[in-house]
Design brief:
By secondary structure, the protein is an all-alpha fold. Helix content is 78%, strand content 0%. The chain is globular and about 70 Å long. The two termini are 24 Å apart.
Length: 337
């Protein structure tokens, strides 16, 4: 009963967030202008963004193999890509659910520890947070005057404080997972438990910690860096192509730097968005960012851009992910270790 209540509360909260963002977007919108914004779209550029987006997911699978190698050698790229796409598909109907389903799908496919693979997802998220901050710093330096003019509250002091807090959190997690700090704490706590429970918890922790072995391998750092840079570049290119689809590069003289800025800001919002697939939240963030940074672009055009960009990405994840879900027979995935 308590579990069902919690689930209902989560659904209610998600619906409230989506409803509020959609209401905020459409409250003062000129619907005729919004509909007209779709008439001039160059769909060729939209189509060109599809293979680039798929390639970004493939590179993510390549990078994931770095983290999986200490657990299971020579896992095929196709199996990794399959699990990645299943995870993306699941994320579109349950927030972050795909991050749990992905390691279970791969664990069943290659017969290895689920706990260790879950740890690799945490490693991936740490790397993603680090590069999100890195990309934000880069686009801020390249577009500092534009950003401060549109968002005057986003000053250097605010950014330093935010960056410092996130850096401390990432550093603490890194030390926790790559040193024996947690092992020592766990040993002190487990002394009060039975030998049976102690051995069981230690077995789970050892399997879990194996997923962090890549953080102890310096030779993987270069590949990590290159793959991560490539992932963000492949995230940015579709947004840049969509500027051409809406002719923003002429009306507002937008460049690939502007596309990178939009991707980073949207990435931050999507990271904290408690809704499936970022529905509503992504649109609100993208529209707010575009309208404030580029006054030449109307709210209606910005929302049309956000709708098409998000819709294409959603279709890629649902269709490709759905096909791989059939391959993996996702309904029979066992979520028990």
């Amino acid at each position: 009963m308590q579990k069902n209540t919690k689930k209902l509360l989560n659904i209610f909260f998600v619906l409230i967030v989506i409803s509020l963002t959609i209401y905020g977007l459409f409250a003062n919108l000129d619907l005729d202008s919004f509909v007209d914004s779709f008439s001039g779209i160059n769909w060729i550029y939209c189509a060109l963004s599809v293979p680039v987006a798929l390639l970004s997911h493939l590179v993510r699978a390549l990078r994931w193999r770095l983290y999986v190698n200490p657990i299971k050698k020579d896992v095929s790229l196709f199996n990794l890509f399959s699990a990645v796409m299943v995870g993306y598909a699941v994320n579109n109907w349950t927030p972050r659910g795909g991050e749990l389903v992905r390691p279970y799908v791969l664990a069943r496919r290659v017969n290895c520890s689920k706990s260790s693979l879950i740890a690799t997802i945490i490693v991936e998220r740490l790397i993603d947070v680090f590069f999100l901050l890195l990309m934000f710093c880069l686009v801020f330096l390249l577009s500092k005057e534009l950003i401060l003019q549109a968002f005057p509250w986003l000053n250097t002091n605010t950014l330093t404080l935010m960056g410092g807090l996130v850096f401390l959190v990432v550093l603490c997690l890194f030390l926790l997972l790559t040193t024996n700090i947690f092992d020592n704490l766990l040993n002190k706590i487990l002394r009060k438990l039975s030998a049976k429970w102690t051995e069981r918890i230690y077995n789970i922790w050892r399997a879990f910690k194996l997923g962090f072995e890549t953080l102890k391998t310096p030779r993987d750092y270069l590949y990590n860096f290159l793959y991560s840079c490539l992932i963000w570049l492949l995230y940015t290119i579709p947004s840049y192509l969509m500027f051409f689809a809406f002719d923003f590069q002429n009306t507002a003289h937008l460049t690939i730097i502007d596309a990178g800025l939009l991707v980073v800001v949207s990435g931050i919002g999507m990271s904290i968005a408690p809704v499936p697939g970022g529905i509503g939240v992504y649109h609100w963030i993208a529209v707010t960012c575009i309208v404030n940074l580029y006054p030449q672009i109307s709210t209606e055009e910005a929302l049309a851009y956000a709708t098409v960009s998000h819709g294409i990405n959603l279709l890629i994840q649902v269709l490709a992910g759905g096909l791989f879900m059939l391959r993996e027979n996702i309904r029979n995935v066992d979520l028990k270790e």
